Amino acid sequence: MAGDHQSPEVPAPVLDGAGLRVAIVVARWNSEITLRLLDGALAGLAAAGVDPTAVSVDWVPGAFELPLAAKTWAGSGRVDAVIALGCVIRGETTHYESVAGECARGIQDAQLATGTPIAFGALTVENLDQALARSQGPGGHNVGEDAAGVVVEMARLVSRVKGH
Fold first, then answer.
1. Pick from 101, 84, 107: which is nearest to 37 by CA?
2. How far apart are CA 65 and CA 83, in angstroms?
3. Rounded Cα–Cα distance for residues 29 and 21 (Å)
4. Contact indicator for 152, 51 with CB cutoff of 8 Å
5. Which CATH number does the domain housing residue 102 bear?
6. I want to staple 86 with a disulfide (CB 3.0 to 4.6 A). Which of 27, 59, 65, 101 is the partner?
7. Domains of the chain: total
8. Closest CA to 24 of 131, 107, 138, 130
């Protein structure tokens, strides 16, 4: 019977970033937002115990360029994980769909090709208010901070499974 099966508790993530090396690639486009995402990512990595000297930050023109930068870092052997931060706000043309979709696909392709975790920290929103709501400072929701937790958790999982 369906009710007889007990599901295990969902475990909390283990966010131990000690010893991890992380690259962050950030889009300059919509920098009012991406700077806030970067602050969140750096705070999230610090909270997880990642040494600030083990974090590299590089800037790219926009969200469309994030996958190449992320893949380059991921394949370099110099980092355990990558965070990609950007912000695509819908406009009056179909440009939004092309940039947002290709950014997401490119980041997923890059992590699958390299085996290195890459967090998708690119906002794809309808307007500036939504972007501001997802890039808040301390105590608020910040997708950059979320991305930091993702890469720490996934870097540990990949390392554990590979036996490192």
1. 84
2. 13
3. 26
4. no
5. 3.40.50.960
6. 27
7. 1
8. 107
Angle at 65 between CA 102 and CA 83, to 5 degrees: 90
List the domain range (segments joined by +) for residue 57.
20-162
Residue 103 within a domain:
yes
Contact yes or no for 71/113 (Cβ under 8 A): yes
Give per-residue pLDDT as tens, 24-45.
Answer: 999 999 999 999 999 999 999 9
- Residues 86 and 128: their CA atoms lie apart, in Å, by 13
pLDDT digits (tens, 9 = 90+) for 111-131: 999 999 999 999 999 999 999
pTM for the whole structure = 0.91
CA 108, CA 139: separation in Å to the nearest integer?
Answer: 29
Whether residue 164 lies in the annotated active site:
no
User: Would residue 4 count as lying in a domain?
Assistant: no
Q: Could you tell me if residue 15 is inside a domain?
A: no
The single residue of 5, 95, 141, 164 carrying the catalytic annotation is 95
Q: Is residue 9 part of a domain?
A: no
